[in-house]
Amino acid sequence: MTALTLSTAAAPGLRADAIVIGVAKGAGGPAVAPGAEAVDKAYDGRLAGVLETLGASGAEGEVTKLPAPAGFKAPVVVAVGLGAEPEKDAGFDPESLRRAAGAAARALAGAKKAAFALPLAEAADAGVVAEGLLLGAYSFDAYKESAKEARGAKGNGKAPLAEAVLLGGKPRDKAYKAATERAVAVAEELNRARDLVNTPPNDLNPEAFAAVAQAAAKEHGIKVQVLDEKALTKGGYGGILGVGAGSASGPRLVKLSYTSPKAKKSLAFVGKGITYDSGGISLKPAGHNETMKCDMAGAAAVFAAVVSAARLGLEVNVTGWLALAENMPSGSATRPGDVLRMYSGKTVEVLNTDAEGRLVLADALWAASQEKPDAIIDVATLTGAMMLALGSRTYGIMANDDAFRTAVHEAAEESGEPAWPMPLPEHLRKGMDSPTADIANMGERMGGGLVAGLFLREFVGEGITWAHLDIAGPAFNEGGPFGYTPKGGTGTAVRTLVRVAERVALGDLG
Predict the structure, then answer these.
(1) Residue 143 CB coordination number (10 Å)
(2) What is the pLDDT along the chain (510 residues), one digit of tens a residue?
(3) Whole-angstrom Cα distance, residue 291 to residue 281?
(4) Coil, strand, or helix at residue 450?
(5) Which of 325, 246, 242 is CA-nearest to residue 283?
(6) Which residues, 6 or more positions from 342, have their beta carbon under 8 angstroms from its beta carbon?
(7) Catalytic residue at 252?
(8) Catalytic residue among 25, 252, 272, 358
(9) Rounded (10°) angle between helices 494-505 and 297-312
(10) Backbone angles phi and psi of 197, in degrees to 5
(11) Which residue among 110, 112, 261, 272 has the highest number of C-beta atoms inside a 10 angstrom radius?
């Protein structure tokens, strides 16, 4: 990952491939943002006019390159748009800084070193800029013929930005140091989640995912337990076993436990980990299978969040449950009409084998509930219906407690992750009544994302506060990259979960 340092050095004398500055969209045209004073002075105070001549407006994500002024050791200035200029005495929105840093880092792929002279009014700004550039510099090329060829004369790829220096950062200031260290830890784990989502399913089956989790747990002092087919059968995990029954790769349930000696609260994060989803016997149609390696993005987010909590030393106990299975059609696969007995003891009539995520989550939710945490949050690429409701960049939040749903939404907003609170209408529950079993895994077609949430609620222990994040839309970006978001796996929900854990540790969230 891109190396990161703080520096109080002046931009003109810094040896780098580029100096990154911010430009805002002002009422009278582009306006040079704070942090770039030395650069503007070198242009005799005319930098805004030069940028306007080059077509720059300051719009968010806009990148304009121009030759550095005489006397600079860096040959290029990269001006990145921050969006609307803030009101007088108001700082830039953190997400604007994060996205601008990410866009600049992407534009500097192939560079060895860049200095970022973006607005750093306080330590928190250094954290968001660091996070943005580290996430924006991400690339996944593990499956190129060779990294050298992919990035060399025979290929089109470029190595990510190797080193970034935050100008205006205070390397000896504890607050600045803490903010950037947090950014590095979260960004590294979020990028690892992206790697997992992007890894082809022939290499990332449930057993392989569990092995990655075991290695990370050993590295960071996290207790880990892996239940294989034999243990799942003995324990009665009918949901996970039923989903994985058609695959040659057996399912797993991974439990990651980070504990703090100073913790007063405990959280459980539960992630859907379908390493490939063909739909099972209810086979997905052509055109809907190609990206289904991403159906384990919820488990990847939970994994990354638990490791982040451990690396940050948060004073809260965090347990992650990764419900891992591959959903495949075969002679041994679960059929529509089959009835599964879940870990909770409830029976479920499977009407559609492509509604499998809720089945593995149901077992993991009940397992998490047995430990009586203060709250449970599950994360899943669960329903296409949520994508129809909220689009491809926003995830839905459902909960059995309105105050907790609001708190999780606030954590998402603080983290820069677009999310929206969704209801759990009681009248939709009746649609899952089954004449054969306690409940069916399908209900009314309209409001399908809410129906899925209601199904999951049935498997949360009594009296336990719970929220469900349906990240089906933003978990995998099939379009072009933007801001700090790459094409492919995005790592959605990692930052929200970490922020929730931080707030609980500080006593700010129940």
Answers:
(1) 10
(2) 899 999 999 999 999 999 999 999 998 899 999 999 999 999 999 999 999 999 999 999 999 999 999 999 999 999 999 999 998 878 899 999 999 999 999 999 999 999 999 999 999 999 999 999 999 999 999 998 765 555 554 445 689 999 999 999 899 999 999 999 999 999 999 999 999 999 999 999 999 999 999 999 999 999 999 999 999 999 999 999 999 999 999 999 999 999 999 999 999 999 999 999 999 999 999 888 999 999 999 999 999 999 999 999 999 999 999 999 999 999 999 999 999 999 999 999 999 999 999 999 999 999 999 999 999 999 999 999 999 999 999 999 999 999 999 999 999 999 999 999 999 999 999 999 999 999 999 999 999 999 999 999 999 999 999 999 999 999 999 999 999 999 999 999 999 999 999 999 999 875
(3) 18
(4) helix
(5) 246
(6) 237, 238, 239, 348, 359, 362, 363, 366, 459
(7) no
(8) 358
(9) 40
(10) -65, -35
(11) 272
Find all residues with CB under 8 Å of 211, minimum gap 6, and list them: none
Instruction: Report the C-alpha gap between 113 and 488 in whole angstroms.
Output: 26
Q: Residue 104 in contact with residue 80, Cβ under 8 Å? A: yes
Q: Where are the beta strands (DSSP E) in 88-213?
A: 113-117, 163-167
Exactly one of 284, 346, 393, 487 is catalytic; which is it? 284
What Å distances lie between residue 454 and 18, 294, 298, 407, CA to CA? 52, 23, 18, 20
Q: Which residues pair with 341 in a beta bridge?
A: 347
Which of 174, 496, 501 is CA-nearest to residue 312? 501
Give the Cα separation of 60 and 25 in Å (integer): 8
Please say if 358 is a catalytic residue: yes
* 40, 47 contact by CB (below 8 A): yes
Per-residue buried b or exposed e for 477-508, using 16+ beta carbons within 10 Å of the residue's own CB: beeebbbbbbebbbbbbbbbbbbbbbbbbeee
Total-model pTM: 0.96
Query: How far apart, in Å, are the Cα atoms of 507 and each of 315, 316, 348?
Result: 10, 10, 38
Kindly give the interhelix angle for 494-505 and 402-415, rounded to the nearest 10 degrees.
Answer: 110
